[in-house]
Write a structure and sequence with these properties.
single chain, 374 residues, mainly alpha, two-stranded antiparallel sheet, 1% strand, transmembrane helix, receptor
């Protein structure tokens, strides 16, 4: 372990959690078990069943407007859950490569300043990843438990059992249990998938911070003179980091699209419900959806800023004190970091805080149109 940083032990704990999360998504807990081959198809089928249950709930004859809209919202949410559940197993090998690369950046380097930067940034990343499950469980489970409690109290169902509608009073307890299990399953899946995405994003952000600190070392002429390979290591680390980040964006390409579009649908109907029925659980759902969208846009803003800083950081170094050969390496690195990039929606629209405001405006506009038609 002497060739790794002190926080390497913490990363190993994190990697075990990630491996467990991947096993949960693919249902591959035992070697040679049948789920190793077909387990990744079982959870999408469960999501499909819950979606069919929501569709069946729309045909309940005595359902009121609040029931029907909540059923639609759950159906929209299942689109998001299904996309994430299918995307992660499909790119499992790419995720393994990212985890191996993150493990490799915990190696001790020859420059103490870089080792100190890596130690601090990676330790901070680990601390944030420990907080993520608590936030996700508190947010998602809190919102879901509020509306489940409400509908259980009033004796209404928003997730029916396919083929067993209309609902008879003597089977109401059975329907409530089915509704509870369906919601808990969906919440568990979205917590696991969001934990995978957010925790990896946090570690990649920490790697960008290490790169920025490595670039700052170029201002120390004596240090660069002693370490002739240091500039080359910056170039290699920059290329590897860009490759890893682009792989991450590729893995969650469809997840980001599904999350954005489903959030728009969520907010439109939630704004409508706030005007029609100001029940306490609607506020909890609205806060949860806005927080989820806010986190996505905030991460997009952070990564856009970090990738955009690389060019400026290189330009502000004492590159003019380097040899002509080393200046060419700096120029090539600057050329590869001219354009800032972050999260993209459908490969076209930048996901950032500006988009967060635009989504809120769009949802209010659609809500106003929907309200005028009622």
């Amino acid at each position: 372990m002497s060739e790794f940083l002190e926080c390497y032990e913490q990363y190993l704990d994190y990697e075990k959690e990630m491996r467990l999360a991947l096993k949960v998504i693919t249902l591959s807990f035992w070697e040679g078990y049948i789920f190793n081959r077909f387990g990744k198809f079982l959870l999408p089928l469960i999501c499909l069943y819950i979606s069919a249950s929501c569709l069946a709930a729309l045909f309940i004859s005595n359902a009121d407007l609040l029931q029907k809209i909540m059923t639609i919202l759950i159906s929209i949410g299942m689109v998001q859950v299904s996309t994430k559940v299918m995307s992660i197993p499909f790119f499992k090998e790419d995720l393994n490569k990212i985890l191996l690369w993150l493990k490799d950046i915990h190696r001790i380097r020859q420059i103490d300043f870089v080792n100190h930067s890596a130690q601090e940034n990676l330790k901070t990343s680990f601390k944030f990843t420990k907080m993520i499950p608590k936030i996700l469980i508190l947010g998602y489970l809190g919102a879901v438990s509020t509306y489940m409690s409400y509908f259980a109290y009033v004796g209404k169902v928003v997730i029916a059992v396919p083929g067993l509608v209309p609902i008879a009073e003597e089977y109401l307890v059975f329907y409530c249990i089915h509704q509870f299990l369906s919601n808990i399953t969906a919440v568990s899946l979205i917590c696991v998938t969001d934990y995978i995405a957010i925790s990896i994003a946090i570690y990649i952000a920490g790697a960008f911070n290490i790169l920025h600190d490595m670039i700052k070392c170029l201002n120390d002429s004596e240090l660069v003179e002693k370490e002739r390979e240091f500039l080359r290591s910056i170039y290699i680390f920059h290329n590897e980091l860009n490759r890893i980040f682009k792989n991450f964006l590729n893995i969650f390409y469809y997840s980001f699209f599904a999350q954005y579009t489903s959030t728009v649908g969520f907010l439109i109907f939630l704004f409508f419900l706030l005007n029609q029925n100001r029940v306490f659980f609607i506020y909890a759902c609205c806060v949860t959806v806005l927080t989820q969208l806010g986190f996505l846009c905030w991460f997009g803003e952070v990564f856009c800023a970090k990738t955009g800083r690389i060019f400026n950081d290189l330009y502000m170094t004492k590159w003019y004190e380097l040899s002509l050969k080393e200046q060419k390496v700096v120029l090539i690195t600057m050329q590869g970091s001219q354009r800032a990039f972050g999260f993209k929606l459908a490969g076209m629209f930048q996901i950032d805080l500006v988009m967060f405001v635009q989504v809120i405006k769009l949802c209010f506009s659609c809500y106003a149109v929907l309200l005028s038609l009622t």
